[in-house]
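User: Predict the structure for this protein chain, please.
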Amino acid sequence: MTEHFVEIRAGNLGVRVAESAAEVEAGQRLRYQVFVDEMGARPDEAARASGLDIDEFDAVADHLLVLDHDRGEGASSVVGTYRLIRRSAAARIGRFYSEAEYDITALENFPGEILELGRSCVATEYRTRGTLNLLWQGIASYVTRHRCGIMFGCASLPGVDPDANAAQLSYLVQQHLAPPELRARALQDRYVDMSRLPPGSYDAKAALLSLPPLIKGYLRLGGFVGEGAVLDEPFNTTDVCIVVKTDLVTQKYFRHYERKMAPAG
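Assistant: Here is the predicted structure, written as structure tokens:
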């Protein structure tokens, strides 16, 4: 786990990196509840027996947590989680998680630190703009601390029928395709064409509004998508690779902190 991370508070909620194995496990339990019980992912026998969503990357990652201090302290307070993997953590495994779906050579060639985001989830009753903003504040603090120049990861649309998400996929690739120097590409044997509808043949505004909140959040920060989608059958999702230059993230939240810290009057 990373060195001490100062918790950012907003009322009863806070965000910081997990500080104990119990807190990491609480995040894994929440992930199981959201991905399996709610979204229909297919767990293996070990996951079904434990009620935890775990993979090999958890051991090397930092786990950003949203905590509700009204529920207690430590593991009992975890209501949201985001998994963060830097170059050094990926090196311990030998790869980034996204490499199972995408060729990320262009991202790995980026000079400086890069950060992979994944396994994002929030408990149902906490899915508010305030909670999402708190998560982004935590990420902004983390990328500033570790001088991460870009962040990336697989973000998901529901289901594994690309035609059901045709407008959303077409909008993303036609309006937000990453420049070549930041463009991941779906592995050839998993590649699904995203441009499923001709430009102008669908309501682009409606497609944007119907995107999952997390993807819309990335786009508001100037995010791009890679080339090609991937069907993740076990998780019952259609994945796209998102890339965000972190200077936009940190600028937005530094302004937010400056407003909060400004003296009255």
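The domain at 8-261 is CATH 3.40.630.30 (Aminopeptidase).
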